[in-house]
């Protein structure tokens, strides 16, 4: 599933990932895009995502602890 999503996403300057969770797709997106904004409402999931990104050495992702609907407004 990750391969299919990443293939469909392509690559570029900016990716927006809504409902990011702990980052199932985020790491792959971060390798394909210059910058990724990862929006997730659950603060625990955002902490896990941030931890996973640090462990992977990825610093081009901005994790946001916010409801996707609210962020899109």
SS strand fraction: 25-35%
Unreliable parts: none
Percent helix, as a range, is 40-55%
C-alpha-based Rg, rounded: 11 Å
Cα(first) to Cα(last) distance is 29 Å
Mean pLDDT reading: 96
Output the strand order for the largest sheet: 1-2-3
The helix/strand series, from N terminus to C terminus, equals HEHEHEH
* Count of β-strands: 3
User: Helical element count?
Assistant: 4
Shape: globular
Q: Largest sheet, if any? A: 3 strands, parallel
Helix/strand class: alpha/beta
In words, what does this structure look like?
With 73 residues, the protein is an alpha/beta fold. It contains four helices and three strands, in the order αβαβαβα. The protein has helices at 2-9, 26-32, 43-56, 68-72, and strands at residues 12-18, 33-40, 61-65. A three-stranded parallel β-sheet has the order 1-2-3.
Secondary-structure map with pairings?
Layout: H1 2-9, E1 12-18, H2 26-32, E2 33-40, H3 43-56, E3 61-65, H4 68-72
Parallel strand pairs: 1-2, 2-3
Features:
single chain; about 70 residues; alpha/beta; three-stranded parallel sheet; 4 helices; about 25% strand
């Amino acid at each position: 599933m990750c391969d299919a999503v990443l293939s469909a996403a392509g690559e570029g300057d900016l990716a927006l990932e809504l409902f990011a969770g702990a980052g199932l797709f985020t790491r792959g997106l971060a390798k394909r895009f210059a910058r990724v904004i990862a929006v997730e409402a659950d603060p625990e999931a955002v902490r896990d995502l941030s931890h996973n990104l640090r462990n992977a050495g990825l610093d081009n992702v901005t994790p946001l602890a916010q409801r996707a609907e609210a962020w899109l407004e």
